[in-house]
């Protein structure tokens, strides 16, 4: 894959591409998107509860276990045995969802709950076209 080292526009025009004269550099998506390779993993979302923060059903999340957690970080967590993607309100011990209409839902993290943060979502990738290759990859069984 190649990277064109200039900003691009989503507009359409009849003029020649201004990027035609720019140098194309080799690109590894790992180098571009992953800051801590040994602590980074990928997940795919299911559901619509986080559309208010730009996370949509089917998005691929880049999750970093080494990234610092801050108040209201977007995290992947295990909450009572279930994986979830939520904003983490560390001050009030809440998991926060924001849907497409900007409605906020709060879930308290009580002492009786089983809770752990599995990583901070540092980036997301939106899939615009169906990908058989991605489906095949994601349908593989996890191995220990």
From TrEMBL:
GO terms for molecular function: DNA binding; hydrolase activity. Keywords: Autocatalytic cleavage, DNA damage, DNA repair, Hydrolase, Plasmid, SOS response. Residues 14-121 form the Peptidase S24/S26A/S26B/S26C domain. SUPFAM superfamilies: LexA/Signal peptidase (SSF51306). One of its GO terms (biological process) is regulation of DNA-templated transcription. Gene3D superfamilies: Umud Fragment, subunit A. InterPro entries: LexA-like, LexA/Signal_pep-like_sf, Peptidase_S24_LexA, Peptidase_S24_S26A/B/C. Belongs to the peptidase S24 family. This is Peptidase S24 and S26 domain protein. The lineage of its organism: Bacteria, Pseudomonadati, Pseudomonadota, Gammaproteobacteria, Alteromonadales.
């Amino acid at each position: 894959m190649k990277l064109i080292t200039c900003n691009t526009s989503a507009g359409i025009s009849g003029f020649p591409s201004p990027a035609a004269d720019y140098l194309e550099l080799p690109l590894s998506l790992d180098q571009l998107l992953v800051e801590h390779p040994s602590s980074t993993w990928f997940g795919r979302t299911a559901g619509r509860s986080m559309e208010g923060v730009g996370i949509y059903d089917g998005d691929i999340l880049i999750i970093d276990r080494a990234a610092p957690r801050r108040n209201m970080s977007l995290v992947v967590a295990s909450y009572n045995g279930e994986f979830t993607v939520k904003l983490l309100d560390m001050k009030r011990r809440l998991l926060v969802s924001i849907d497409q209409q900007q409605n906020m839902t709060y879930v308290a993290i009580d002492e009786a709950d089983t809770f752990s943060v599995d990583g901070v979502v540092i980036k997301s990738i939106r899939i615009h076209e169906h990908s058989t290759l991605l489906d095949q990859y994601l349908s593989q069984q996890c191995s220990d």
